[in-house]
């Protein structure tokens, strides 16, 4: 019965089996269904995904631009805070010795010139000394807000200060804080704080003008992070802004209209409508139209899109008058817009914003394949940070611009670049030539100030070639010449092959020095220190030696600076200390009163935990602290007197002796003998070379020994080479002597065999 019913439906007078047209239409409908699904569902979904990707990249680019604007203001406020924090007048105010400071320094001009709304100062004990706000055209107290801002700071405050964005109440602030010191960076006088209130108008002023997006600040939850929200007509992206401490409190919210998405959606709906109408009207015509007018165009668009990925200048064919043409033109407009923004960002990368000169990347791109490059002059401004503190950031910016102008305008034969914050470059291309000495002299012409002139002493490196040299190689040569001038304290360094060999040798030493201790290439030699009166040896000084299998004996004066620059001095210093302690402890079996002196590198003494590391080494090796004397030089201590005194005081309290080495070799001050925690003063060998009793040097030697005795310090004379020198020291009352007349440096076991 059911079989008859089905046969009747198909073969009946109104069934499909009676009409070939109906069967064809049904077949075309079945064939068209997958196509319709693809055209109406799959392709729109792929295009929508592509639109979302483009919008996501657009949000990232706009967020980067907006963050750069905020970071520029953040750095400016931080530098403004730095200028006030490293000021002796501020330091004296926190110490209670400059009561007029607040009135003199915190006027309306300070807030207006610095572009800040709040300022505060705390004393060394954390008490609030100053809390002001700039309101209208006057400065008023603002203790409540300043206290709230100070509460956002980490404890303790880092030495380089902090900066960031905070939320106080319902208000957003950009703040920066630094520890207050004197002009030379010494002392700790409390905290200097400046902040800017980030209202919506203030935020708009900081941003580059843009009609494409709108920006505002929004509060973040405690675990807030970057988020991206696609709304029907706009995209909202939130990027967290770093706080001075803890988790970010504020986020930068960008709202961007989804013009491309909406245009694409309109085009897709129009496409769906056209496809639906054509399918209903005539399946066959629709299929032909779909193949000729849609699939072919979309295939071409796909190929064009893939080509755009390889060639950003390529564009989709937009002559089609249908919705597909609208879509192509819309995509082309978006690509043009993104290409324009990319060109702007690329221009900012290739050009220095302050001077308009090429950046290092710009020089590299411009001259990478230029065979006419002939010379490179690199000019560096020493102590630029000090000039900023003396005359202000605006003067330093003007100085940098004027130096770039003096180097000459960027043309085809002479190209000017700014390769660092305090470095400029002048690149010449054939046939142009320059005289580096004269160019440097022209650059050093006095710079005008409102109250006078400022004369700078620049340092430069120069390299030239009579034949084509790659720009990168020429720049490296000029950099070597500049570094040579800095190291040798010269005015101008001119590259030659000797510099290259010296640099290559230094690189070889740096490479070979790694693992030298493990390869047993390092050793210690010892030189005795004897009592002047009795001749009895009282201690030995450990001297580091390096015997390389190919390079031979490398002098300490050669490899120690390499180790300090490369950071390997920490491992070398630890090895030397541990070896000296072990060998001297073992020598006490034959020499019970043996002591050892170990030299300290400036890099080691600047380590925050140097004293703790030395004491831990003594504990690990089970060695008495009284066995060890550490030798420091005046130049080492003067790099950070406060830190050095703290280390030396900790060592002396534990029983380690402290000796001041090479006293009198430079601009030594007798006040060091009273200021530093010392046990021994080692007199430089120059005292004995020029120290005849009737000379001024001899008088200084005699007075230094007498002063050391009065201060209960022992004295050691270095460089004793004959009996006459030893007799002179005995007459002057010097305690101990060291030099070739006593003994040359030797292995400790050999010295023990001939010990007196």
Automatic annotation (TrEMBL):
Domain HAMP: 292-343
Protein's UniProt name: EAL domain-containing protein
InterPro entries recorded: CHASE4, Cyclic-di-GMP_PDE-like, EAL_dom, EAL_sf, GGDEF_dom, HAMP_dom, Nucleotide_cyclase, Rev_trsase/Diguanyl_cyclase
Assigned keywords, A-Z: Membrane, Transmembrane, Transmembrane helix
Annotated transmembrane regions: 20-46, 273-292
Species of the source: Deinococcus caeni
SMART domains with a match to the protein in the record: EAL, GGDEF, HAMP
Superkingdom: Bacteria
UniProt xrefs under Pfam families: CHASE4 (PF05228), EAL (PF00563)
Domain EAL: start-end pairs: 506-756
């Amino acid at each position: 019965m059911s079989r008859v019913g089905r046969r009747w439906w198909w073969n009946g007078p109104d069934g499909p089996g009676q009409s070939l047209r109906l069967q064809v239409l049904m077949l075309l409908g079945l064939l068209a269904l997958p196509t319709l699904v693809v055209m109406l569902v799959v392709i729109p979904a792929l295009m929508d995904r592509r639109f979302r990707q483009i919008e996501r990249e657009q949000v990232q680019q706009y967020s980067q631009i907006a963050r750069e604007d905020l970071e520029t203001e953040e750095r400016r406020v931080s530098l403004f805070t730095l200028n006030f924090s490293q000021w002796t007048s501020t330091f004296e105010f926190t110490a209670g010795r400059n009561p007029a400071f607040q009135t003199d320094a915190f006027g309306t001009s300070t807030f207006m010139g610095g572009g800040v709304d709040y300022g505060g100062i705390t004393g060394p004990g954390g008490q609030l000394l100053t809390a002001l706000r700039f309101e209208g055209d006057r400065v008023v107290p603002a203790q409540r807000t300043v206290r709230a801002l100070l509460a956002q700071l980490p404890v303790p405050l880092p030495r380089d200060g902090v900066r960031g964005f905070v939320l106080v109440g319902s208000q957003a602030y950009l703040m920066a804080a630094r520890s207050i010191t004197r002009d030379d960076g010494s002392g700790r006088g409390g905290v200097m704080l400046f902040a800017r209130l980030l209202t919506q108008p203030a935020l708009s002023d900081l941003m580059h003008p843009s009609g494409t997006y709108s920006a505002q600040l929004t509060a973040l939850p405690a675990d807030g992070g970057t988020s991206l929200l696609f709304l029907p007509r706009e995209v909202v992206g939130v990027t967290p802004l770093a706080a001075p401490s803890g988790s970010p409190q504020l986020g930068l919210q960008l709202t961007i209209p989804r013009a491309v998405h909406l245009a694409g959606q309109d085009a897709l709906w129009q496409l769906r409508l056209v496809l639906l109408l054509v399918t209903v009207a005539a399946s066959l015509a629709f299929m032909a139209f779909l193949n000729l007018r849609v699939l072919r165009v979309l295939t071409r668009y796909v190929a064009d899109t893939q080509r755009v990925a390889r060639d950003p200048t390529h564009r989709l064919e937009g002559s089609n008058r249908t919705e597909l043409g609208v879509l192509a033109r819309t995509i082309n407009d978006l690509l043009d817009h993104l290409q324009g923004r990319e060109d702007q960002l690329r221009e900012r990368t290739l050009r220095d914003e302050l001077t308009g000169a090429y950046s290092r990347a710009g020089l590299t791109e411009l001259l990478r394949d230029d065979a006419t490059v002939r010379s490179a002059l690199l000019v560096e401004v020493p102590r630029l940070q000090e000039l900023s503190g003396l005359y202000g950031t605006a003067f330093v910016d003007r100085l940098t611009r004027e130096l770039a102008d003096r180097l000459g305008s960027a043309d085809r034969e002479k190209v000017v670049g700014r390769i660092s914050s305090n470095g400029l470059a002048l690149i010449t291309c054939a046939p142009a030539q320059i005289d580096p000495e004269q160019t440097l002299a022209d650059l050093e012409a006095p710079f005008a100030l409102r109250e006078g002139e400022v004369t700078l002493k620049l340092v430069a490196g120069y390299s030239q070639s009579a034949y084509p040299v790659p720009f990168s190689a020429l720049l490296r040569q000029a950099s070597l010449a500049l570094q040579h001038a800095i190291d040798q304290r010269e005015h101008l360094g001119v590259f030659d092959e000797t510099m290259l060999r010296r640099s290559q040798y230094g690189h070889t030493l740096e490479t070979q020095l790694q693992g030298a201790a493990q390869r047993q290439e390092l050793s210690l030699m010892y030189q005795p220190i004897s009592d002047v009166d009795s001749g009895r040896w009282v201690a030995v000084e450990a001297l580091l030696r390096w015997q390389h299998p190919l390079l031979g004996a490398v002098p300490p004066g050669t490899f120690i600076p390499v180790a300090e620059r490369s950071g390997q001095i920490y491992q070398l210093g630890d090895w030397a200390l541990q070896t000296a302690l072990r060998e001297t402890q073992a020598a006490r079996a034959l020499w019970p009163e043996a002591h050892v002196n170990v030299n300290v590198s400036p890099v080691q003494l600047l380590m925050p935990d140097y004293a703790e590391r030395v004491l831990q080494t003594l504990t690990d090796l089970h060695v008495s602290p009284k066995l060890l004397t550490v030798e420091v030089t005046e130049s080492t201590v003067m790099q950070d007197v406060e830190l050095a005194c703290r280390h030396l005081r900790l060592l002396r309290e534990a029983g380690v002796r402290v000796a001041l080495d090479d006293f009198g070799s430079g601009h030594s001050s007798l006040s060091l003998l009273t200021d530093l925690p010392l046990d021994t003063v080692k007199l430089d060998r120059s005292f004995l070379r020029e120290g005849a009793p009737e000379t001024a040097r001899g008088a200084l030697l005699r007075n230094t020994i007498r002063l050391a005795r009065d201060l209960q310090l022992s004295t050691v004379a270095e460089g004793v080479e004959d009996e006459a020198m030893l007799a002179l020291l005995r007459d002057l009352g010097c305690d101990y002597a060291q030099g070739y007349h006593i003994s040359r440096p030797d292995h400790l076991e050999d010295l023990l065999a001939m010990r007196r």
